[in-house]
Structure formats: structure tokens, C-alpha cells
Amino acid sequence: QTQLVESGGGLVQPGGSLRLSCLASPLNYRSIGWFRQAPGKEREALGCSSSSGLYMNYTDSVKGRFTISRDNAKNRVYLQMDSLNDEDTGTYYCAATRGSCMARDFQSWGQGTQVTVSS
Hints:
The radius of gyration is 13 Å and the shape is globular. It is an all-beta fold. The protein is built from no helices and eleven strands.
């Protein structure tokens, strides 16, 4: 079982940026995915960082605005979010799998961090 803790959420104005962090214990040999869920909507898969250092986008809705990075020494995977708009409001989660990003078989989930985009 992988323990996951997200942080970095908060209130941001439209056009602003946030960087979310996912602390994973352990992180080695794990692929980490980022997801979000807006009020009244289904959970949306955003992207994934594989244990081999590859990145996979799961949706085009954030392409060019969201970037995933990984720091194995700190056991952290980051989600850099730029040019935020009100449709990006929601709870953001990270999840872990010992499989590949392509398989999307995530077994462990964090508690989520809230992102609110509002003026």
C-alpha cells in the first residue's frame, strides 16, 4: 500500500498558477496519476508520471497548461497548473499504481486537495 498526501491547493484568480504536490511513501517503482473532480461531475484523469520517468497525458482539456514532474529524491510528484480558469475548480487527487500509466490500475489514493479558481 502506498501512502499519498496532496498539498498546494487553494484559492487562485483566473489566469493564475498553482503547483500541487503529491508526497508518496514509497514512490519507487510506482506510477503516479493526477485526477480531479469538479462538483457534480465525474472524476477526470489528467495525466501520469511513470516510475521509468515517462509522462502520459490522459486528457486534452489541460494540454499545454498542466505539467507533471517528478522528484524521486523527495518522493514527490508535482502538478504545475497554469492559465487556470473557473472550469479547473475542483478537488485534485493523486493515485499510485505499481503498474504502468497506460494500464490506469490505481490502487492507492490520496485524500485530495481543493483548488478554487475565482475572482
